[in-house]
Amino acid sequence: MMADQTISRRTLLTTLAGTGTAALIGCDPAGRRQPGTATTVPDALLVEVDGGLGVLRGGERLTIPRAVATPDGQAVYATAPDGAGTTFWRIDTATGHTSTRVTLPGQWLPQAVSTDGTRVALTSNAANATYGRPDGRDVTPVLIADVTGVRHRFELRGNFVPEAFTEDLAGLFVLEWLPARAPDRYRVRVVDLATRTPGPLSTRVKTPVPPGAEEEMRGDGRQAVLAPNRSTLYTLYTHQPDHRHTRDLISGRPGNAHAFVHTLNLVERWAYCVDLPHPFGEAPASGHALAIGPAGDRLYVLDVTSGTVAEISTEELAVRGTAALAQGTGRAHAAAGPDRLFVGAGTEVRALELERFGAASGWSVREPVTGLVLSPDGRHLYVGQKDAVSWHDPATGEQLGRAEVPGLVVVHGLAGRA
């Protein structure tokens, strides 16, 4: 949610379509194609390159700025300025097929997509819930659209940034930045789309948060992941000195959480924070990462600076234990499989055995890691590096292939499968 975050909820998208051994190519914002290197990537990947994010597919890519991906990577919603309006359309990442383009009145940028992939929240400025602090403002225009055009259009009094939709599409979770004209902190609220009114969330026991007890956050929202069943959004926060959760504000406890996982239930509209033990939150936020297991019952939080990994039960919303990992430096990345947790930082990749929580092996790669993604069948671990993506045998670390991707910033996740 801050400038230091790597996120998986939404992406400005550079999409790469196609299969086989065709040359890796791209389009700049003006639509010109750029030559590249012939390489075939086994799985389609969502990636970020200079100026946008995208999908690698086989050996081709198509660059689309000003766009956002659905949570499952199956589609991309793109926008383009069109005089006084904005052209808006959907692209199927598995086939490259596009919907009919519609024109939205005014200038808009996409910010969040519903978990079912049908609705998009757009605002008039570039700041979104995963990157950056918005400029000061008293009023926030918001537009909700689908492939048919505008569904809702309204203005919120204050400084708001869309974050996610409720599961029933009747509400929009937003970050309200305070104070509106000079924001330095924010709180999560939900806008009723029928009344266009923002209000507080509920507690974990489904009672409304009382006035004055809404959490206000100042630290770094490092990363967010969506549960496999799409019902819950988990966000890792670090550097929250003297932070007081809603439960602390209600009970009167002082509170002093340096790091926690903010749990947002998209179905029942409640939030709960899972505090992380020391030393989480003490070291740079970039050295922290979050991953969710494929069954959705376990979250893993790691701090490579201290070499600490925590396991969280998503049912109990509690830390079940911690383990030691080799200390590292640099930006951390993580990917969880059914039996192993993969951690990347610097030029090292570690594999932690989950059955024997703490037993680890590892290997080195050519350049500093910029993302880890495990293939659906578990046969490939994709490792982002400088201007390239390599894929490895997860059991041995043997490099099985490498594709040059000029301007690669980070590998985010999987794209749609044909």
Gist?
The chain has one helix at 246-251, and strands at residues 14-15, 26-27, 33-34, 41-49, 52-58, 62-63, 67-69, 75-82, 85-92, 102-105, 109-113, 120-123, 139-146, 149-157, 159-165, 171-178, 185-192, 197-199, 220-226, 232-238, 259-265, 271-275, 288-292, 298-303, 308-313, 318-324, 333-336, 340-345, 348-353, 360-364, 372-374, 381-385, 388-392, 399-404, 408-414. It has 418 residues and is mostly beta strands.
CA-CA gap between termini:
32 Å
Low-confidence stretches: 1-37, 243-254
| Broad shape | globular
- Got a strand count? 35
Which percent range describes the beta-strand content?
over 45%
Largest sheet: 5 strands, mixed
Helix content: under 10%
**Mean pLDDT over the residues:** 83
Give me the oligomer status. Answer: single chain
What's the helix count? 1
Please give the radius of gyration in angstroms: 21 Å
**Which structural class should the secondary elements be placed in?**
mainly beta
> Can you list the strand order of the major beta sheet?
6-1-5-4-35
